[in-house]
Automatic annotation (TrEMBL):
Domain Glycosyl hydrolase family 32 N-terminal: 56-380
Segments forming a coiled coil: none
Protein name as it appears in the record: Beta-fructofuranosidase, insoluble isoenzyme 4
Origin species: Aegilops tauschii subsp. strangulata
Domain of life: Eukaryota
One Pfam short name: Glyco_hydro_32C
Length: 594
């Protein structure tokens, strides 16, 4: 009762007007234009060490953003990342490549940064790039360097000692920059983030680089025999005319990879293309990572999307929440493709400076293509389950309209929760209005957890205070469109913190489900203090959120509930939850341990 009576977001106003459409909120700009880093930060009135995550990837201190290269090499996983070794802010010119290693993708040891800005081709920062393992097994890295005149170029480094499985030291090649922004019409300050290389049928290496040309946003294609001297192919891998498309600008952090419909085995991009293979082109644009599914036409050396949608707002997203600049890699150890992204803080910069760190990487996820060939699916790597402890289980629950079932027995700040919701009837589904696809966030604001529906909202209330002043809700609603059912998944942060100056939107995304065949909708949520990652419908919609509840910092205790607020009863055939133990993530001075 508390939950519903206190939740005022009823679509007719309430807190919806406070739900900004983009994270660029005026009180807390996360703009990169701050230089130099402040020496004596103004200490904000609230900062708590309890917001630091226990099992997500982050360095001991300071700023991180994009994952730059995940790689499995000689028995070791490597994560390279955008890192500011000096402070907890993104500062133009300070950005280096941080480096951590792991044997299980859960526990990490931080090594020393591998690429630092120290020459004309990267003096304004060593920005995002990718690692590639060459045919002889030797790794190389291509990265974007910012040069003084705001010009972006691509540089190459290779390991000093390839027999060192930790790849501790890297050397910049004397030929840098290996790629210059010399394309006609190219904006020299919008030319970055080279992909991992792949070999084409002619035996030559290829990479794509994001670029903004006069009226185009493009994945420019380059070819090379030796990874050192590169020639631009006269057509891009894929491009779009910016004047024809709505809500799109330069594609950052491109990723191009092969996937097999309905098969979660990963594919090595340089291996021969199997029959039935599809390709995914991922771009980071605006505030989201979006993707297109299509085929790689080898004759034309071009990506051809299965469907052309001019309005970028309708493109599918890797994650519908706080998740950007993701990068995938083929894990040759387990034959899977893994992706992970950067989740930035949603607090104020002054808080970040005071707490001394900002940014995390999401839990690595296995990624593959749904059997319908249209949508990517993601699931946290199995290794993360090694942190599960104190399992609790419930079977055969029934949630009627207005019911809340409290989930006790696990640490509600560090948990892994898996619930199956079974629909007792699908007749009560409300009609689907396709215009909500343009703005699911707005729809989540208007149709919050307190707004009764036909089927749903039902889901999970987490990080809830005793009187429900604070709570975060992850929930579903079911709609009927002509022949199919559309499921809306929301991660509603509007009441996640009683503190001001946090970015607290209601994130949302839709997925299709054949409810005539399968009546169950699954929800898995990983809670890790200020990070909440949710996977709906078996990984069809993923939403990462950052939350800063006072219950975590001040009270140290919160509640968690499964709930239903739709007219149709929802069964819960299986609910499992675990406390998640703390992982050893980049414990200070890790490099002395190896
Ligand atoms: N971050 C990097 C850029 C990239 C952007 C700079 C995306 O290379 O385009 O830190 O977050």
């Amino acid at each position: 009762n508390l939950f519903f009576s206190n939740s005022s977001s009823n679509g007719s106003g309430g807190r919806c007007s406070l739900c900004p459409q983009s994270p660029e909120v005026s009180f807390c700009p996360l703009s990169p234009e701050i230089s130099p880093c402040p020496q004596s930060p103004e200490v904000p009135y609230i900062v708590s060490t309890r917001y630091r995550t226990a099992y997500h990837f982050q360095p001991p201190r300071n700023w991180i953003n994009d994952p730059c290269g995940l790689m499995y090499y000689k028995g070791i996983y490597h994560n390279f990342y955008q890192y500011n070794p000096h402070c907890a802010l993104w500062c133009w010119g300070d950005i280096t490549w941080g480096h951590s290693v792991s044997t299980d993708l859960v526990n990490w040891i931080q090594l020393e940064p591998v690429i630092e800005p120290d020459n004309p081709s990267d003096i304004d920062g060593c920005w995002t790039g990718s690692a590639t393992i060459l045919s002889g097994g030797q790794p190389v890295i291509l990265y974007t360097g910012g040069s003084r005149d705001k010009c972006q170029v691509q540089n190459l480094v290779h390991p000093k000692n390839p027999s060192d499985p930790y790849l501790r030291e890297w050397t910049k090649t004397g030929n840098n920059p290996v790629i210059q922004p010399v394309v006609p019409g190219l904006n020299r300050s919008q030319f970055r983030d080279p992909t991992t290389g792949w070999i084409g049928p002619d035996g030559l290496w290829r990479i794509a680089v994001g670029a903004e040309l006069k009226s185009y946003t493009a994945a420019l294609l380059y070819k090379s025999e030796d990874f050192l001297s590169w020639t631009r192919v006269d057509h891009p891998l894929y491009s779009q005319n910016l004047s024809n498309i709505v809500e799109c600008n330069m594609w950052e952090c491109l990723d191009f990879f092969a996937v097999l419909p309905g098969n979660n085995t990963g594919l090595d991009m340089s291996a021969a293309i199997l029959r039935g293979t599809k390709h995914a082109l991922k771009m980071s644009v605006g505030y989201f990572d979006k993707y297109l599914i299509g085929v790689y036409d080898l004759k034309r050396d071009a990506f051809v999307p299965d469907t052309i949608v001019d309005d970028c707002r309708l493109w599918l997203k890797i994650d519908y929440g706080n998740f950007y600049a993701s990068k995938s890699f083929f894990d040759s150890k387990k034959g899977r493709r893994i992706i992970w992204g950067w989740s930035k803080e949603a607090d104020c910069r002054s808080d970040d400076v005071a707490k001394g760190w900002a940014g995390i990487h999401t839990i690595p996820r296995t990624i593959w293509l749904d059997s319908n060939g249209k949508q990517l699916l993601q699931w946290p790597v199995d290794e993360i389950e090694s942190l599960r402890t104190n399992e609790i289980n419930h079977q055969g629950l029934e949630l009627n309209k207005g019911d809340m079932f409290e989930i006790n027995g696990v640490d509600t700040f560090q948990a892994d929760v898996e619930i199956y919701f079974e629909l007792t009837s699908i007749n009560a589904a409300e009609p689907f209005n396709s215009s909500s696809l343009l703005d699911p966030e707005k729809h989540c604001c208007e149709a919050g957890a307190s707004v009764h529906g036909g089927i749903g909202p039902f889901g999970l209330v987490i990080l809830a205070s005793n009187n429900m002043d604070e709570h975060t809700v992850v929930h579903f609603r079911v709609y009927k469109s002509q022949q199919k059912y559309m499921i809306l998944m929301c991660s509603d942060l509007r009441r996640s913190s009683i503190r001001p100056s946090r970015y607290t939107p209601a994130y949302g995304g839709f997925f299709e489900l054949d409810l005539a065949k399968e009546r169950k909708i699954s929800l898995r949520t990983l809670i890790d203090r200020s990070a909440v990652e949710s996977f709906g419908g078996g990984g069809r919609v993923c939403i990462t959120s950052r939350v800063y509840p006072a219950v975590l910092a001040d009270v140290g205790r919160a509640h968690m509930y499964a709930f239903n607020n739709g007219s149709a009863t929802v069964r819960v055939p299986q609910l499992s939850a675990w406390t998640m133990r703390k992982a050893q993530v980049n414990v200070e001075k890790g490099w002395s341990a190896i």
